[in-house]
Design a protein that fits this description.
With about 400 residues, the chain is of the alpha/beta class. The chain folds into 3 domains: about 10-225, Rossmann fold; about 250-325, Tyrosyl-Transfer RNA Synthetase, CATH 1.10.240; about 335-405, Roll (Structural Genomics Hypothetical 15.5 Kd Protein In mrcA-pckA Intergenic Region, Chain A). The protein contains 17 helices and 13 strands. A hairpin with a 3-residue loop joins strand 12 and strand 13. About 35% of the residues are buried.
Length: about 400
Amino acid sequence: MKNIFPPINEQMDLIKRGTIEIIPEDDLLRKLEKSFKEIKPLNIKLGCDPTRPDLHLGHSVVLRKLSQFQTLGHKAILIIGDFTSLIGDPSGRNTTRPPLSPEEIAENAKSYFEQASKILNRETLKIVYNSDWLGKMSFADVIKLSSKYTVARMLERDDFTKRFKEGIPISMHEILYPLAQAMDSVAIKSDVELGGTDQKFNLLVGRDIQREHGIDPQVILTMPLLVGTDGIEKMSKSYNNYIGIDDSPKDMFGKTLSIPDNIIFNYFELATDISKNELDEIKTFLSNKENNPRDIKRKLAKKFVEMYHNKDAAINAEEEFDRIFIQKGLPDEIPELKFDIELMPILELIVKVGFAPSNNEARRLVKQGGVSVDGEKVTDLNFIVYFDKEKILKVGKRNFIKLTT
């Protein structure tokens, strides 16, 4: 039978790209060698709790690593945590995430899969729901599982340690969460589990519980948390520093061009599939202070739009950006809003059209000089907009709306 796998060294090169830790690396080599010899793919596990219906490039980092394993010929298994979502994972937080209803979980899982399919090969992807095994466990089963791990070991988890020292309550269901996630690894007999650095403890628990069940422990691959467009905090909708997988080509292009120069290379390495040779060329280009990083940043912006939309959309997004910000023109398509009143204060209007959540935020935008009507900057907080003719309201860099009567 013809071997379907690339040589071990080629596999390791791709697997190591952008990876923070491989625990333990020797075990991964052993598993890959056995896989190659027996022509049998490894089970690569990625768990996702569908707590949010929308994904951003931060989520894409670990999804892209799972996709790379698919490229190498291994079996990608995406575990939808419909059961664990009912518990709520406190990873990286001081308080637990609120549990979701079954209806919310189902809707979010559907949205997650649709967006993740832009990265993963859905033809070879195996999707399972952990309620299939966790939902069948009896209370006796849970007690038996709990006996396989000590409280002392559980408190080694960073966020538990911090909360324990600060006297912040830790609920018993939070203690059970890593054990529930570990049972996922037992159920599918995972060879490798992927996760962000904030999931390291949970992934390691999976190794221990697999061992307790007589299963060859999984290898852990941890991936970095992608820094957001602000260049400071990890990418998150909460920080409003994200580039969404479902963002429009215009927004995706514009947001990418707003990132600081010092994280350009990280975005190429972690969030794209360009070759190692191209990565080396980009690193060399960025290290030369005579070069303008903006040129590479535009390449990155086009790459993202091409990946999540198409080449034509990438070309159009770049042309539109140049028209708006370089040629000071207007977008090809501007949404319209019709008013049947004579006038409205500028702060109220900004909130009305959805460009700010409150008058305070609208006031801040005006003070920062980010508001204009028909190309004239608005500086007066008491400015009145009269709906006597068609006008263009611009708020920030990318928000336009045509006001009609």
